[in-house]
């Protein structure tokens, strides 16, 4: 095994300078790190919470082989790592006294870290969500198309976006502490939400896009209010934002699905999305007071 060293920093620019080439080497697998750090860079270090984020990278013989970040109160997020690297990361974070309320990563990495953290801290890993990362192949417009038309959301839609983002987070079991207003403002700043309108102009669904970073754009979130579901609106909105992402220069158009929802997984495959990798999210319970859990919410 080559010499291994994890480095932790609170300096975003230092992290991006040292880990940038590594993150750009797999924009698909590193999409969350790329988009979140871009949000921190453009919107400020408190974009996702009141506490300062921290970052880390793994160097082996002068090359970066892994990275992580945490934006409290959210979970720790990791790039894919081998079992040995996962163990060394757990030791590194324990030595620093870092609070780790949960972890999200490629499925094998997340499970490996959950086990390593349990062995070191006594925390009980609780599976929270299983996800699948998809990448767009040939875009296929679903048929029959619903009535209505797409349009890019503007400032007049801000209140609607804030409300729908809050409803979306409640639907997926996350806290309302997510900064819905900050999310809406960030998306509006880069025309990052498309609405599907009924023929009378009433918005019935939305699909969002992250900014273009490292040649990738991720579709997130897709939401239709419960009374309007099952009419094809989500598929139409997703198809339109997927087209826009390609138009904006994305080499890779990505999205995550919840594997517990077979309907959405089937829909995205029909549109043209193909699986890349499975991911998993765990919460940690029963940690010592020095590593007490903080709230677990979604960006």
| Number of contiguous helices | 8
**Residue share in β-strands:** 25-35%
Low-confidence stretches: 289-299
What letter string, H or E per element, gives the SSE order?
EHHEEEHEHEEHHEEEHEHE
Counting helices, strands and paired strands, the structural category is: alpha+beta
Major β-sheet strand ordering: 1-2-3-4-5-12-6-11-10-9-8-7
- Looking at how many chains there are and whether they match, the oligomeric state comes to single chain
**Radius of gyration over all CA atoms, rounded:** 19 Å
How far the N terminus sits from the C terminus, by CA atoms, comes to: 36 Å
Could you tell me the number of beta strands?
12
Helix content: 25-40%
Mean pLDDT: 93
Main β-sheet, in a few words?
Answer: 12 strands, mixed
Quick description:
The chain has 299 residues and is α+β, with helices and mostly antiparallel strands.
What do these coordinates show?
With 299 residues, the chain is an alpha+beta fold. 35% of the residues lie in helices and 29% in strands. It has 8 helices and 12 strands. It has helices at 12-25, 31-43, 83-96, 107-121, 158-171, 180-189, 233-247, 262-271; strands at 4-9, 54-60, 63-70, 76-78, 102-106, 124-136, 149-152, 193-197, 203-209, 216-223, 252-258, 273-285. Residues 289-299 have low confidence and may be disordered.
Reconstruct the topology from this structure.
Blueprint: E1 4-9, H1 12-25, H2 31-43, E2 54-60, E3 63-70, E4 76-78, H3 83-96, E5 102-106, H4 107-121, E6 124-136, E7 149-152, H5 158-171, H6 180-189, E8 193-197, E9 203-209, E10 216-223, H7 233-247, E11 252-258, H8 262-271, E12 273-285
Parallel strand pairs: 4-5, 10-11
Antiparallel strand pairs: 1-2, 2-3, 3-4, 5-12, 6-11, 6-12, 7-8, 8-9, 9-10
